[in-house]
Write a structure and sequence with these properties.
4 helices; 33% helix
């Protein structure tokens, strides 16, 4: 995976890696846009497009284009400040430093309702 390095640590879940590889195979141009968005998030993870609600409450979302992909992630520093350690969703919370950005899911906008987002 060709993930650019930013100010923060890139910590993808296994599911995220699998879905990102799927995007790379199916949509090479979309994959490039996703990588640019990941690069921006690793430089400034607070630039989320909002927080998720419902069963995914508290997780951050970032749009990749208006009608394309959605990235679901969490920034360890803010999660810990809010005392919302999402151990069931994150990798290994205690082993990941505060400057990490945990990428949990990526999906096409058209699949959002089907996936429960």
């Amino acid at each position: 995976m060709d993930i650019p390095v930013g100010n923060f640590s890139f910590s993808p879940s296994e599911h995220f890696v699998k879905e990102l590889e799927r995007v790379k195979k199916r949509d090479p141009e979309g994959y490039k846009r996703v990588l640019k968005t990941i690069e921006r998030l690793l430089a400034s993870p607070g630039e989320a497009d909002g927080k998720l609600t419902g069963p995914h409450r508290g997780l951050l979302k970032k749009y990749v284009g208006r009608s394309e992909y959605r990235i679901v992630y969490n920034w360890c520093r803010t999660c810990r400040k809010a005392n919302e350690k999402l151990k069931d969703r994150c990798l290994s919370c205690d082993a990941i430093p505060d400057d990490s950005v945990v990428f949990l899911d990526i999906f096409h906008k058209s699949d959002a309702a089907k996936l429960g987002y």
